[in-house]
Amino acid sequence: MPGSLTRFLCSCASPFSLDDDRDDPSLWTRDLRRCSGDVSAAVIQANQVLEDQCRVESGDFGTFVGVFDGHGGPDAARYTCDHLFQHYIDISKGPDSVTDNSIRHSFLATEEGFINLVSQLWSTQPDIATCGTCCLVGVIKKSTMYIANAGDSRAVLGRKVGHKVEAVQLSTEHNANLEEVRREMKARHPDDSQIVEFKHGVWRIKGIIQVSRSIGDAYMKYAEYNREPIKPKFRISEPFISPIMTADPTILSREIQPNDSFLIFASDGLWEHLSNQEAVDIVHSHPHAGSAKRLIRAALQDAARKREMRYSDLISIDKKVRRHFHDDITVIVVFLNHDPYQGRCSQTGPTLSLRSPLDN
After folding, report:
1. Can you list the residues of the chain whose pLDDT is less than 50?
2. Which of the two ends of the chain, N or C, has the fewest CB atoms closer than 10 A to its terminal CB?
3. Contact yes or no for 297/19 (Cβ under 8 A)
């Protein structure tokens, strides 16, 4: 599908409309109205300050999707949402320059910039050293898709098989609850018997954080930030020289096949409540428009069921308190258009640009 998705999205330069979901004031959604929902996005806020961010950009450079799931505050997710796409554009200039390495370098350039910001603010805002973000990026360029991930967000492909759809997970996750991640961390830090610890019911890196890769989390990468005045719960007693965590993503590249139908990009808050197959079944069995919203509602219904409460009661809970029931959740669904004539527009036409709100 050479350029077909890009042309289709370009033809819808201003199609987004804010869908004010009145039954849940914490839910923000947008869909491509004139394009029958070929991109659907939704964010639900649970924290007092929204720590998730997302971004979709499309033009002659291809289509870029980013889901940034922050922790320890919103700063790292907001910074990454602001800067990673521009790094990708700068590094990937040229007709054939989108590669695994160019995407990797955009992650590492963003990491370098954020660590520099931590250094600048250390004396006045030391808590920014304990702020980080998981980072999931999808790039669609001509007939190839690239999926890059650092952290535990997830990208899932919906692939048509007959009249059904099967789920294909495309991203590799970096969470200490996965045995392969614990093995990786032990192999990277063979002299540290406490590199992973089981604490508060889950496996954690140094008994503190579940993810092993992220942008930010300077206190886990540079010893000069693992000291006062950051909070005691983040301080590691034994000295370390090499970074404990990394911003280096795992990257998959894949040729788009005729039966590839859609992609779901979502923060881990969605996958705590829905399996890959449940998610693709929901998208496949409904109209395109509202797909991201339906996935979030399904996740919240599961969260309510687990607490033996009604969905209507859950969505009436105030922010911050609501975090005890579910996480901030971000979902972007991208439908793959294989028809090169549908919605054709000029390559010099306006680009599509979408960013989630800083707060909801």
Report:
1. 1-20, 22, 33-37, 340-350
2. C
3. no
